[in-house]
Amino acid sequence: MFSSFDSEILFAARLLLGGAFVFAGLRNIQNAAFLTQLMTTRGVPQARLVLWLGIVLQTVTGALVIAGIWTAAAALCLVLFLVVATPMFHNFWDHQGPERASRINGFVGNVAPTGGFLALIAQSL
């Protein structure tokens, strides 16, 4: 059973993890033209549609995680999103020098929340 303090920590975890994806989804709206072009060059079919589906997925599931509604399902959706999006946008293996380092940082920055989402899934089952 959770104490009040445990519940507060769990809410903070959900707020930080889910909030990052709500923020990213909203930010991606501003960058939609650039991201669509990038996805097109990476061979994503119907890149604009896929991008908008990703934006909706990020914002809705992020909000569900924050609210603690369908937490395991929302967290699983975000894990799957990260598995697809991370190698697409942080392809460090195709770069050298400072650009490679930047892409590695982005890659690791996307892998880390996966652990948090897996912990939320385990906690909510």
Low-confidence stretches: none
**N-to-C order of helices and strands:** HHHHH
Would you report the number of β strands? 0
Shape: globular
Chain-averaged pLDDT: 93
- Strand percentage lies at under 5%
The separation of the N and C termini measures 13 Å
Question: What helical percentage do the residues reach?
Answer: over 70%
Radius of gyration, taken over Cα atoms and rounded to an integer in Å: 16 Å
Major sheet, described briefly? none
Overview of this structure, please?
- With 125 residues, this protein is mainly α.
- It has five helices and no strands.
What's a quick, concise take on this entry?
This protein is mostly helical.
Short key terms for the protein model shown above:
5 helices, globular, mainly alpha
Q: What layout of secondary structure does this protein have?
A:
Layout: H1 4-30, H2 32-41, H3 47-67, H4 71-89, H5 97-124
Helix pairs in contact: 1-3, 1-5, 2-3, 3-4, 4-5
